Prior knowledge:
Layout: H1 2-35, H2 41-64, H3 80-114, H4 128-153, H5 159-169
Amino acid sequence: MRKFLDRLYLAGGALGAVFIALIATLMIAQSILREFHVNTGAVNDVVAWFCAAAAFFAMAHAFKHGDFVRVTLLLETVGPKTRRAMEIGSLLIGTVSVAYLALSACRFTYESWEFNDISQGLLPMPMWIPQLSFALGSLLLLTAVLDEFIIVLRGGVPTFVREVAERHARGDFSSEI
């Protein structure tokens, strides 16, 4: 199960990276086409949707690898038992919050599909299609947070703590800047 979940988070991160590459490609293409007086207004809508997709698909990967902004100042000053209790409390709050986000995202996407909501921009598209990245990315993040919560409940060190420690051991402090 661990290999499957790790591959799932990696796939989400890779998908987020693909959307970032597509954003760059579309923006460069739009700049070139403008020089030839080609109307490219609908590209702005697509880029906005791709920005959301890149963010939501990459969240689980970023969370698991310690790339989210975390305030560890307090955790570093307390003992191991207090630290574990605080990590469990934080992950419980995170799990509940992300579960609410995922539920809301799925409902929102379903309602867009149910009511046949069409985008208002230059490119008419059923809104559930770009909103699907919001729902799927939220579910993926929920899986990652729940995964960490279970790891800590079972007495393990959170993956994001281990990942950051391994980077620091290699002399990589780039994420700290």
